[in-house]
Amino acid sequence: MTDLLYSEAESDLRAAVRSLLAGRAAPADLTARVEEAGAHDPALWKALATDIGAAGLLVPEKLGGHGASHREAAVVLEELGRAVTPVPYLTSSVVATETLLAAGAGDLAGELAAGRTVAVLAVPLSAGPGHEPADTGTVTGVADAARADVLLVVRPDGLYAVDAADATVTPLTALDLTRPLATVTDGGGGTRVADAATARAAVRRGLLAGAGLLASEQLGVAEWCLEETVRHTRERHQFNRPVGSFQSLKHRMARLWLEVVNARAAARSAADALATGSPEAPLAVAVAQVYCSRVAVHAAEECVQLHGGIGMTWEHPAHLYLKRAKADQIALGSAGHHKDTLAGLVDLPAPA
Fold first, then answer.
1. What is the spatial distance between Cα 282 and Cα 270, in angstroms, rounded to a whole number?
2. What angle do CA 147, 166, 128 make, to 5 degrees?
3. In terms of DSSP bridges, do strands 168-172 and 158-163 run parallel, antiparallel, or are they unpaired?
4. Exposure of 74 by Cβ count < 10 A (0-12 exposed, 13-18 middle, 19+ buried)?
5. Which of 105, 194, 326, 333 has minimal CB crowding within 10 Å?
6. Are 108 and 151 spatial neighbours (Cβ–Cβ below 8 Å)?
7. What's the CA gap between 244 and 236, in Å, rounded?
8. CA 103 to chain centre
């Protein structure tokens, strides 16, 4: 039987990341900074990536990493989701790192593990597992490209590591300001790190790991929204009673709690399947994405609605969670994409 409970090491890692974010990246403070280049804080990234060592969790010790697993990386993403933290962890420390490891580019993966370099795979944020990059030289909707030192560019003859300064990166206006998007135009040059066949397999691996661990970020978003909604409805009074004591609101929050519990099981299952190299990993990832993306959006919508008028204001961070949840809903493959994948894996007709 697979043990999906958090280990002591995972709980300690969670405590360290949560303490860091509480002191330096509280959601209430983020609303005032979110329009400033996505509120990216290089000092916060250094503390997370280097001081805590989160950037090297997926990198083997012989390459300078910590030799941990996707389960530990999932814990980090849960906490980053709880704080909608504007750092390139998913894009660099998960997707790009997994791609490089699968491509056999251990030296560059080691630089990412040390936190000295941020790398981004130059594919659209919406690209899910199985995505085949188009040979156009220009890619739109690349997440965190403006924060990258190195861009991993797929060309017909393989995968190249290109200095970001040698490419044209044009920022776009994104719904989720904490995860900025850009259009990347390949300027040529760079170092080839894998041939064409290896590159295709490496990109598939990177996107699969990204989609699987994105479910943990979505879980973190949903958990914060539920906890904040319960807190608010306990403190907000109408007719001399906490509004959370009203039967209809109790039912809505109870339903949401059950959804979050199920989302945790799905996200943990995907992380464990990736960590153990299970042949069922594509199935677990598809299930997690189909379910967790919907739960995150539902939790964020309930958070906005049950906060009443204050939930609609810019000053309250609820809108940041709703935007992250909506952006994540189509990130690394939409629910429809993953349903099609799931249908093929279990040999059933896909939903119409």
1. 8
2. 55
3. unpaired
4. buried
5. 326
6. no
7. 8
8. 22
Radius of gyration (C-alpha) of the chain in whole angstroms: 20
281-306 helix and 335-345 helix, angle to the nearest 10 degrees: 150
Q: Which residue has the tokens 């799931």?
A: 342
Which residue do the tokens 């080691």 mark? 110
CA atoms of 92 and 300, how far apart (whole Å):
26
What is the C-alpha to C-alpha distance for residues 49 and 195, in angstroms, rounded to an integer?
29
Q: What residues contact 12, with CB distance under 8 A and at least 6 apart? A: none
User: What is the phi-psi region of residue 118: left when phi exceeds 0, alpha when psi lies from -120 to 50, beta otherwise?
Assistant: beta
| pLDDT tens digits, 97-112 | 999 999 999 899 999 9
Calpha distance 289→345 (Å, rounded):
15
**Residues with Cβ < 8 Å from 2, sequence gap 6 or more?**
269, 272
Beta-ladder partners of 191: 161
Identify the CA nearest to 139 among candidates 103, 181, 174, 176: 181
Using DSSP bridges, classify how beta strands 119-121 and 150-155 pair: parallel, antiparallel or unpaired: parallel
Closest by alpha carbon to 98, among 106, 342, 48?
106
The segment with the largest mean pLDDT, out of 147-161, 227-241, 300-314, is 147-161
Q: How far apart are CA 322 and CA 301, in angstroms?
A: 6
Instruction: List the one residue out of 118, 114, 120, 117 whose CA is nearest residue 51.
Output: 114
What tokens appear for 282 in the block?
């594509």
| Average pLDDT score over residue span 118-141 | 91
Q: How far apart, in whole angstroms, are the C-alpha atoms of residue 110 and residue 181?
A: 25
One-letter identity of residue 171 = P
Tens digit of each residue's pLDDT (9 = 90 or more) over 331-352: 999 999 999 999 998 888 766 6
